[in-house]
């Protein structure tokens, strides 16, 4: 069964939603539903991002001698 919900958005959020719908060709309602489903599921879109900045090491780790493949 369908349920209708009316919400008010500030200008910035409404502009983002409109641009996202135009860019992707997906309806605004579908974008909102998908975002709500993501929140409901509790799982981030990119779960690895929770580790961003958590790893320490030399800034040049990938360019150290013997580790690069050129």
Features:
mainly alpha, 2 helices, about 0% strand
Concise account of the structure shown:
This protein is mainly alpha-helical. It has helices spanning about 10-25, 30-40.
Low-pLDDT ranges: none
Class from helix and strand fractions? mainly alpha
Query: What does the overall shape look like?
Result: elongated
Number of helices: 2
For the termini, the CA-CA separation is 58 Å
Q: Main β-sheet, in a few words? A: none
Rg: 20 Å
Q: Level of helix content? A: 40-55%
Strand content: under 5%
Give average pLDDT, whole number.
80
Q: Count of DSSP E strands?
A: 0
SSE string: HH
Plain-language structure description:
This protein is mainly α and 70 residues long. It has a domain at 8-42. It contains two helices and no strands.
Write the layout of secondary structure elements.
Elements: H1 11-24, H2 28-41
